[in-house]
Amino acid sequence: MTWQCCLFASVDISNSTAFKQQPRSKGKDWVHRFRNFFSDFPQEINRAEDNYGREPRFQSCNDEPWKLWKFIGDEILVWANVPTRSHVFLRLHSLLKAVDEYETQIRLGAPSLGLKTTVWLTNTPLPNTVVEISQADHDGKPIKVRDFLGPGIDLGFRLTRFADNRFVPLSAGLAFVLCSQPRPDLFDDLAIGYLGRQPLKGVMDGRPYPVFFIDRARGVQTKEDVVLGRNVKTEPASVSAFLREFFERESDRHCPFFPADTESFWNQIPDELTTQWAALQEVQKESDMAEESVAKKDVSGTENVDIEVVIKRLDTQPNKRE
Length: 322
What we know:
The chain has 322 residues and is an alpha+beta fold. The chain folds into two domains: 4-269, Nucleotide cyclase, GGDEF domain (Alpha-Beta Plaits, 2-Layer Sandwich); 279-316, no CATH class. The chain is built from twelve helices and nine strands. Helix 3 runs antiparallel to helix 4 and helix 6 packs across helix 9. It starts with a strand and ends in a 6-residue tail after the last helix.
């Protein structure tokens, strides 16, 4: 077992339903466009990562690229292992660059379409877990497919409802990491805004959750932002202080940790999680022993024994028929 911090992202085509419903003369190429999105966008991320990875600030972080997780409808889900906070910045900058580049391409032939993105951060194997599911590929050959389950995964999907062409919702843990980075060269031109506390189904027992976002407009406030009182560019230090207090107060919310990070605050695994993992390992050990015991019994319920031992015992016994 290896403790990991994982970055997840959902990238979805916006206005896709309306585009598909257009008359055939206008929307007949939607199948082609969506097929290209599924095949081309992961490559767009790889290109962005290659470019950013050459920069001196990220040269030590280009060892854990984005990986395809799965497709859901018009949505692509990707994930990456992020051993340190610097890895988070490289992965995030690469993702946002790929979204901007591909959105420009897709709008050349379909101006009504766009991309909307949600990004979140969580740890495995606790409080979330990784499972491998056996499936068959297109040739019928068995393959193992990795999937992720847990409250941190559910949180990310809940946040997707706030995503649009401009705002990229973030988990509170990810916002905390971004705003607690002392190196301006990593933060770059990210503009992090705040939507306030929002109720999310199944999250924090119904208590409102603080929803932050990256503003793809780089924090340029519109007249609508002013009318709504929307804060599209917060002060990182203020966000960091607020979220540090949030994680201290909310005992059921764990601050993300990075096993390979150099700072002790960020690389410490919470005692509660290590205790839970030890308990789970003990349960697994007992389960394995029980399965082993069952395996030693035949269908009649008797224990299996070595056949050679049985033969030797029979050879030493007198033949009662004689």
